[in-house]
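Changelog-adjacent note: as of this version, every example in the card shows the full chain rather than a window. The one below runs 104 residues end to end.
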Amino acid sequence: MSFLSSAQKDLVDRIGGVVDDVEARMMLGTIGLFASDDQFGILEEGSLYLCVDDESRSTFAEAGTEPYGAGGVETASYLEVPEEVVEDDESLATWVQRAVEAAD
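Full-length structure tokens:
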């Protein structure tokens, strides 16, 4: 995964502690995060976006996060994870597990 920055590699490694067989794939200028061939996240520059469903969307809304937007098109099924969640292993694990379930 030489296309990952060191910070992105560290984050993928941390996520790998929560999700078995996490895989980062280069996709049209962004990085998709996959578990069992289901995309559950997106890494773009310094931001992590996770897949949401009707149940988890409210948690992201309460945090005031933004939808992923590539080429001016917003994708409401992936919302940005707040920095304080990314920095906390326990919170990150909870949010990632929800995203994997939403992507399944």
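Structural remarks: The first strand starts at residue 23 and ends at 27.
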